[in-house]
Write a structure and sequence with these properties.
2 domains; 6-stranded mixed beta sheet; 39% helix
């Protein structure tokens, strides 16, 4: 599937360079991005190729540019305002590059035109490894390990983290109020939007080096979602974004635990040595046998994790995890995935 092409045109070299550096670091944006500071160069590129989005500085916007063959023109405004101007939407130029991209995708997604359906020859198999983190004991270490693993992997590859616990608490842990969450993406998909990928970037947030999609306040809100819909989302992430790893913090998998476990390429299972946890592990293995899914055993790696050196406060909790014993175990595990 062809990625959407976004062209940024701004004569301010420092801004253009900084924006391109962000794109290079991010690595997971579902766009092919080209940055220009010279009018003749950007004109030649658009005339000779295909651009879906033109993000252009208000200083250089002109009648000639408005006639260029692009689907959507968005103005980079030097005033801290957002919305639709006389003709084109405006976004604030000097906010973070992450927020610029999020707003571009939100504007573009609301007006994207449908693409023709892919033929079977054009279909691209997603190059996305799905890593599940699950414990039948529901230990607090499970989410901490999932975040540590995500942070470690994100140092070398684009990684997306998703939490499937009933009450993840991520808003409090990351000190963020989420304007969009996973339900917004699923809603776009349910509405049959051809460019549902455009709804991903406005929702994605970042902690340290790790991208994540905010969960709903309660996982109960998503219990009506079928696993086919989750599979469709995973396929979308694999085909339309640059993510190489998807880390699923499964909890009970919204009542679809078996389906989620079967979808994973690898499953990490944090475990303690106490008796209650051991008997829960025994019950989990019995459940695997009863369900007739012994192949899941081959994917599972049980991990004995040290609880004593976890971060003691919420500030930069996820980032601190990589320096703990838990983070060191995550680093060893990451070499095998």
């Amino acid at each position: 599937m062809r990625r959407k092409i976004m062209v940024l045109f701004d004569p301010e070299t420092e801004y253009a360079v900084r924006f391109m550096e962000y794109i290079s670091r991010k690595g997971s944006i579902p766009l092919e991005v080209h940055v220009f500071t010279d009018f003749n160069q950007v004109k030649a590129y658009i005339a000779g190729g295909r651009a879906d989005i033109l993000l252009v500085s208000e200083r250089v916007m002109s009648d000639e540019i408005s006639g260029w063959p692009v689907e959507r023109i968005i103005i980079l405004s030097e005033k801290a305002v957002q919305g639709t101007g006389d003709r084109y939407p405006h976004i604030y130029k000097y906010q973070s590059s992450n927020d610029v991209v999020r707003e571009v995708m939100a504007f573009y997604g609301s007006a994207a035109t449908p693409e023709r359906e892919k033929t079977s020859d054009e279909a691209v198999k997603p190059d996305l490894r799905i890593l599940g983190v699950y414990s039948p004991a529901h230990s607090g270490l499970t989410s901490s390990f999932a975040l540590a693993l995500g942070q470690v992997l994100a140092r070398r590859s684009p990684v997306l983290y998703m939490n499937f616990e009933d009450f993840s608490g991520l808003s409090g842990l990351f000190h963020e109020n989420f304007e969009e969450n996973i339900s917004d993406i699923l809603y776009s998909m349910r509405q049959g939007e051809k460019d549902a990928a455009a709804s991903i970037i406005p929702a994605v947030r970042r902690v340290g080096e790790l991208d994540y999609i905010p969960p709903c306040l309660s996982g109960q809100e998503l219990h009506g979602i079928s696993f086919k819909e989750w599979e469709k989302l995973f396929d979308l992430l694999g085909q339309e974004t640059g993510y190489e790893y998807l880390v699923l913090d499964l909890g009970d998998g919204l009542g679809l635990l078996r389906d989620f476990l079967e979808s994973c390429d690898r499953i990490f299972m944090p475990a303690a040595e106490d008796i209650p946890e051991k008997v829960r592990m025994d019950a989990f293995e019995s459940w695997i046998d009863q369900c007739g899914i012994p192949k899941i055993r081959e994917k599972i790696r049980v991990l004995r994790l040290p609880p004593e050196d976890l971060p003691k406060n919420r500030d930069r909790y996820a980032e601190q995890l990589v320096w703990t014993g838990l983070g060191r175990i995550a680093a060893r595990v990451a070499d095998d995935v």
